[in-house]
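User: Fold this; tokens only.

Assistant: Input:
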Amino acid sequence: MNNIKRKLAAFTFRTGFLAVFFLTACDKGFEEMNINPNSFTEPAIDPLFTNSIIRTVGTGTTDRNRTNIKYASGIMQYHATLQNFWYGEKGVVNAQTGNFFETVYTSHLRELMIVIRETEGNPELINQNAIAKIWKVYALHRVTDAYGDVPYKQAAGAPEGIYKPAYDKQSDIYPWMLQDLEAAINQMDAAKASFGAADVIYAGSVPKWKAFGYSLMLRLAMRLTKVDPTMAQTWAQKAIAGGVMQSNADMAKLAHISANENTWNWDARELKRESLPEGNQGLGFVKMGKTFLDLLQVNQDPRIPFYMTLWEGNIDAKQGQVISQTTAIELQKALPNGYDPNTIGTVIPGWKNELLREYSEPNTATIANFSAPTIILSYSEVEFLLAEAALRGWETGVPQEHYHKAIRANMESSTLYPNSSVANVAITPEEIDTYIAAHPLTGSMPEMMQQIHTQFYLAHYMYLDFFEAWSNWRRTGVPTLQQINYALNATGGAPVRRLMYSFEEKSLNAASVENAIKNQGPDLYTTRVWWDKE
């Protein structure tokens, strides 16, 4: 984090350019605002907040997306690859393990902390201040979930003159995040002004930001079910009483357009780059993982054509000429996880590289389309968590009703994506009804927990939210992941449970890193974060 000073000049330029470009693309009236986003003496909070949203979800910065794709999706065995630079799947140590940490503190949070500072104590800007504080919790909960102990109280870093911030214990960070969410939500006033067009998620809607804040509170509360059930129950019930999302119309999402790389969905960009190398279509680095496809197939899941295709469907995705054929359920085939070009022949005799073309890829016409929305937090997830809360007796609803609402909401949200109405790819109302009828929530509490969180896992591919699937797996143990004991792994064959701090941070902020290690354990992939209790 010591590199903040030398990054400031370049960052300032990028902040202004990206925020203004994105808003120009998405809102035709914003260019009329004659604001200089590069001014740090009198900061223009609107474009700074816009840029914080855009960068936090990954557009314009590869580190967040590569961590989501190359680490989290591989850890969760959604994807398989024969390359060992998909580090999560095989548990291989690489310098990129710390890139997400560095990017959040030197990019995502920088402008957000300025917004918070410049709006603090101003009664006319209480909504902007509250929304920025909610967004800060969203940004930092990802970081602490990935690494454990991280800076929270001193997250502002260099703008506050702090170049070696102290690391806070995750056991302190979680209560602080929940308290900060509650305080921010309580200060909001729908009668006062908000961000308006600069808010590219909810257009400044105070009621929707409140619902987002309470839904995020529910996510964080449920994270604590193993380590502190009492705290988990208290905050889950607060969130539910406050008012969580009620429909897909409430979900937090960022729209994208395909006109320019600066406005693409960069998770989709990363998947397309990995699955469609120039001149070697069908021989890309990413294929569908066996753990994931096996679960989809055993559940006779209608999302299979929406999620994946054979390589020809991706080549012609723009024209939509063949995806109705190449997405047929019976054609889909998953690559076993945990192998490289030299070892794959031990499980697939007679292997040769050309055989890669027989294996399914993420569907770049739909979920991995450049103009697909980034789903930040979904109504579907909220209903899955409500199903669990009801199962635990923390909520008065019927667990199965929430469970079925979650599945339905996820499948119906497919209509937000490009090419969602193409024959065979479309998920029809009849298919949704049939699937729900075939999936009652029954059995013992452990069995019902297994059912809820299996569906949670299957649903989160719709949103390419592999971070959240990974966090939920660490809490629940669902699904059961294949043991991968790759020759170069650093986990002894166990799945990765946290990311390691950056090499730069260990060098330049060594004392803080060392204190974190003393508190939570060795800086290893296998060390559990505080809430990931055995």
